[in-house]
Design goal:
The protein contains one helix and ten strands, in the order αββββββββββ. By secondary structure, it is an alpha+beta fold. It folds into two domains: 33 residues; 104 residues, Immunoglobulins (Immunoglobulin-like, Sandwich), CATH 2.60.40. A hairpin with a 3-residue loop joins strand 3 and strand 4.
């Protein structure tokens, strides 16, 4: 290879190096540019979703209740809300024989509702409460109880 050939190869390398540096320069400039301003995805509120609003139980036939907390956002819609504290409360009267396990959860709750003894009422209303970031809401769940009564004659 002569001097002219070396000049062509050297010139080609110089052009390639300069092009490579321009590409790096463009990448750096692009990285410094501020991102497009997008509307914030604002939290609009929370919601408790129930697997059922009415359950039926009897001795030997328990039921399950599922509760899921969701957050509603202005742009992305509904998403799970794992930070919402969920609690179920039972009315104190006539629920001594009703068993709800577990009573609390975070974001989601799946509980078993069963009879552990006699219950004075045929229907019990459970209160499901959700709390997060200054927000609180409650929903009601009706539990219908079918009890098997035995009549004894003496």
């Amino acid at each position: 290879m002569g001097l002219a050939g070396a000049g062509v190869v050297g010139g080609a390398l110089l052009i390639k190096v300069l092009k490579g540096n321009q590409g790096a320069k463009n990448k750096k400039e692009t990285a410094r540019q501020p991102p497009e301003q997008k509307e914030d995805d604002k939290l609009l509120g929370y919601e408790l979703r129930l697997s059922a609003e009415k359950l039926k139980i009897s001795q030997g036939a328990p039921a399950q209740l599922g509760v899921t907390a969701v957050a509603q956002y202005s742009r992305s819609g509904y998403r799970d809300a794992p930070g919402v504290a969920i609690a179920i409360s039972l009315p104190p009267a006539a629920t001594a024989g009703l068993q709800v396990v577990p009573l609390t959860g975070l974001g989601r709750l799946l509980c078993n509702i069963s009879l552990a003894g006699e219950v004075a009422a045929n229907q019990v209303v459970l209160t499901v409460t959700g709390q997060a970031s200054g927000w609180q809401d409650e929903v009601k769940v009706i539990v219908e109880i079918k009890q098997d009564f035995q009549v004894e004659f003496f």
